[in-house]
């Protein structure tokens, strides 16, 4: 595959957070292990139990009857058996403890909703590997990594919890998720409305498939974020690609690039240069996703409004190539070396290891076929068109499978979802994923909440003194809807008896 | 497995009909073959095209990328591109041409709904065999025989039709099915509401799973049908089992049984006697399903109200064993030899070969786990309890798979389906499957229609001069709902533009 597709294959969702987790306390409590974790502020303890459920590897076939252990976390400090609720995080492409620690919103609202918090790990991520360390060896072992299987896991898990936890049986369950997890939350409500009374789908680009939205919308929003964060910022980045290309023509230029940037491994050929540009592009993308209004320590520590900080180095697109690239490199250091502790930069890494990049790469090659493109005009990147045929070839080479780009729309309805109810779609306008999200109300009970100053699911993060008013408003609307769903559930239950 | 379970394993749905199909006319018309068939009355011609679509063998996994040809029939004589609709029969466990010819209701309403009729064959039945004649060889080849895969086939097919048939794109599709096909129609609307605007689920026992209804309800309704059809009728049948058992104790008794009944193969051992009783039980069950108010020629020709005819032979439970059994055998002959052409009776057959008994046996052993039981008191059968463990063992022996009795409820919601809309559940009160059906309105748009004089989906059959008023009323209500769905669809469409 040409680099553009590789670049886009690497594109995974990010669910940045502000928590550092200390090792589990390992205090045995019945059959559960308890794990305590602390946020970076060191003050709010998150206490949850770590649990496992045996799940069928294949819910949709009976030939293989194997099971695997799916991990899930439960926090019930604020749960009330009388009139309470269950908030169920539909885990996405990563370690569930990481999502648990980075979805402070659920912890913040637990008391007022008298809610038990459940965080369910997505199969093939974290510890929930259907075939252990063989899970990614080939397409046969990967055959059960689909959104449908993940939703079935969630459904089976909730039925299990209701059956086994005294007091849980007659309580409403609300699905909550962000990013791909937000898509899962929405789809879970659509497909299993008998199991969850509603869903909060934060930053869920459920329309980033097929022709539902233009393929360029994602990178245009990334570009806008840089444009608004400093004069000439996006123009400087747009100019940088040709500057790199010009340096890359000679061995001396490659050496200069490697040294100026402090790369761990020197660039030696054209492919390396393509990788460098892909890595830089992903950095800008990641910054757009985590452009939060306060200091956060996702992956590497970042300052508040990190794009503004980055853009301070990117004010002039008209300087010499060398000067421009040195400015770019300083900007990159904001993302990769804010703490000043990196000795060199590794262009094969952009995100936390808590995210399962292998798994997501497979999912992107099968069901989650999201078209991306750039034209260099409406965005600040080198032009790349979306080429499904090439993408398919690359997927076949990498995983031995071919994408089915129409399937997700057939399965989950595309834009034709108005017959469903009780789903909140929240999106931050700074978040490039909002381009594929639902940003207008569809019906009275399929509502869109937009957060002008929000990046990738800011609303799901723990409350913060620097939260903009718009995210406070969004959260309070979300809680209002959830309370309504809970009231409706109990009212219906009373009607039955 | 003990016979009771075998008996129940054999229990398949029946979709009896009144049509004799002449061989296809084979007149080529573009790429379609046209097939013309005639009802028994010889007057109403059914003209449809036979078509095939390439479907993924596995919609829910990407390792195997094979496809197979799914057959579907289209009749568009009454279809209008302007303001029309598409009635989509969600094929069940048999040859789709048989269902097509036995769902006269769709043909009868096509003109007033300006409807295209589509009949989609269920995978693993009729010609739609994913692995040709290897489809049933082992659990590996059978792994893709599930309701979820079948629904996915339907969804993909409808998307394909809308894309390829000019004028179909912006038309509402209504799912229609009877029996297991009715379950599929209801589930299709629940899971793919973006693809069908509503569903008519006729005689669909969607609650005949787990503990949703008592396991004895089915056989109780069979018994009631015989009780109401003649004095002492059900009591006579109840007495017959012990009479058979007493005869079966000796070789002479076995010979007498075999000869008196005119069996093709003589009974020689206890297992044969169990098989005989299972076969007789199934005959009574089948009669309860096809107890139609007019002469019909399903399997074997049957008189109007066949149970009444049968019961004329079963008026006295207190005669000698020999006399009682001779009466039973005369009654059986109503079902097996109404035309007088059978030379002997074969106890390994009870239903038309158009039904795929192998496929249904596998489905009953995996997803479609329907508990049945008898107690000999509330019903006229020998007592048999429902034994899941034993059932599971037998399934494993027969197919190498084990049933997952909770799965269907987890997947499709059990009794908790009130968030769905636009489904008509119709049931005949004579139909034993009505015990597992929805017979009371759930909401304004999830409505139940009951037909007091109706057997198994009488409403889906072609109109007949002897139709009781209640089925005429049911059909007119069904049409009224369907017209409303169509109107709503077009009103919404206008609103969008």
UniProtKB/TrEMBL annotation, chains A, B:
Superkingdom: Eukaryota
Any one GO MF annotation of this record: dipeptidyl-peptidase activity
EC number: 3.4.16.2
Any one cellular-component term (Gene Ontology): lysosome
Coarse class of the protein's main subcellular location: other
InterPro entries xrefs: AB_hydrolase_fold (IPR029058), Peptidase_S28 (IPR008758), Ser_carbopepase_S28_SKS (IPR042269)
Localization of this protein: Lysosome
Keyword Hydrolase: yes
Record keywords, A-Z: Carboxypeptidase, Disulfide bond, Glycoprotein, Hydrolase, Lysosome, Protease, Signal, Zymogen
Enzyme class: hydrolase
Position of the signal peptide: 1-19
Pfam families recorded: Peptidase_S28
GO terms (BP aspect): angiogenesis involved in wound healing; negative regulation of systemic arterial blood pressure; proteolysis; regulation of blood vessel endothelial cell migration
SUPFAM superfamilies associated with the record: alpha/beta-Hydrolases (SSF53474)
Catalytically driven reaction(s): Cleavage of a -Pro-|-Xaa bond to release a C-terminal amino acid
Family that this chain belongs to: Belongs to the peptidase S28 family.
Quaternary structure and partners: Homodimer.
UniProt cross-references to PANTHER family, sorted A to Z: LYSOSOMAL PRO-X CARBOXYPEPTIDASE, PROTEASE S28 PRO-X CARBOXYPEPTIDASE-RELATED
Role according to the record: Cleaves C-terminal amino acids linked to proline in peptides such as angiotensin II, III and des-Arg9-bradykinin. This cleavage occurs at acidic pH, but enzymatic activity is retained with some substrates at neutral pH.
Name under which the protein is recorded: Lysosomal Pro-X carboxypeptidase
High-level lineage: Eukaryota, Metazoa, Chordata, Craniata, Vertebrata
Gene of this entry: LOC113915128
């Amino acid at each position: 595959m040409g680099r553009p597709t590789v670049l886009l294959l690497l594109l995974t969702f990010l669910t940045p957070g502000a928590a550092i987790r200390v090792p589990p306390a390992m205090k045995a409590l019945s059959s559960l292990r308890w794990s305590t974790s602390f946020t970076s502020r060191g003050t709010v303890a998150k206490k949850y139990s770590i649990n496992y459920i045996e799940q069928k590897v294949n819910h949709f076939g009976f030939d293989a009857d194997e099971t695997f252990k799916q991990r899930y976390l439960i926090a019930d400090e604020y749960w009330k058996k009388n009139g309470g609720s269950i908030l169920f995080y539909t885990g996405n492409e990563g370690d569930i403890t990481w999502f648990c620690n980075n979805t402070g919103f659920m912890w913040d609202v637990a008391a007022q909703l008298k809610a038990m918090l459940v965080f369910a790990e997505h199969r093939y991520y974290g510890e929930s590997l259907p075939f252990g360390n063989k899970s990614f060896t080939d397409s046969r072992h990967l055959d059960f990594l689909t959104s449908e299987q993940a939703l079935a896991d969630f459904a089976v898990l909730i039925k299990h919890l209701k059956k086994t936890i005294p007091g849980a049986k007659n309580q409403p369950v609300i699905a909550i998720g962000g990013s791909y997890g937000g898509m899962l939350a929405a789809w879970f409500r659509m497909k299993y409305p008998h199991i969850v009374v509603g869903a909060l789908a934060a930053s869920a680009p459920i329309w980033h498939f097929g022709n539902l939205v233009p393929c360029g919308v994602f990178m245009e929003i990334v570009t806008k974020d840089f444009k608004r964060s400093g004069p000439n910022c996006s123009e400087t980045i747009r100019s940088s690609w040709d500057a790199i290309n010009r340096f890359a023509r000679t061995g001396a230029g490659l050496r200069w690039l490697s040294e100026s940037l402090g790369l761990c491994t020197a660039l030696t050929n054209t492919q390396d240069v393509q990788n460098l540009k892909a890595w830089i592009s992903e950095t800008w993308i990641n910054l757009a996703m985590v452009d939060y209004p306060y200091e956060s320590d996702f992956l590497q520590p970042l300052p508040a409004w990190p794009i503004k900080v980055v853009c301070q180095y990117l004010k002039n697109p008209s300087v010499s190539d060398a000067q421009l690239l040195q400015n770019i490199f300083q900007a990159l250091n904001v993302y990769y070396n804010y703490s000043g502790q990196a000795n060199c930069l590794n262009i094969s890494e952009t995100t936390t290891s808590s995210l399962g990049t292998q798994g997501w790469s497979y999912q992107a090659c099968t069901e989650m076929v999201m078209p991306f493109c750039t034209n260099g005009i409406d965005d600040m990147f080198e032009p790349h068109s979306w080429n499904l045929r090439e993408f398919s070839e690359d997927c076949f080479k990498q995983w031995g499978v071919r994408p089915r780009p129409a399937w997700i729309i057939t399965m989950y309805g595309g834009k034709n979802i108005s017959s469903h109810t009780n789903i909140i779609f929240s999106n931050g306008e700074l978040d490039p994923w909002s381009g594929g999200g639902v940003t207008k109300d569809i019906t009275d009970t399929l509502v869109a909440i937009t957060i002008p100053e929000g990046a990738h699911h800011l609303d799901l993060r723990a409350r913060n003194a620097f939260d903009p008013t718009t995210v406070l408003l969004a959260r309070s609307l979300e809680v209002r809807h959830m309370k309504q769903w809970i009231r409706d559930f109990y009212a219906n239950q009373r009607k039955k008896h």
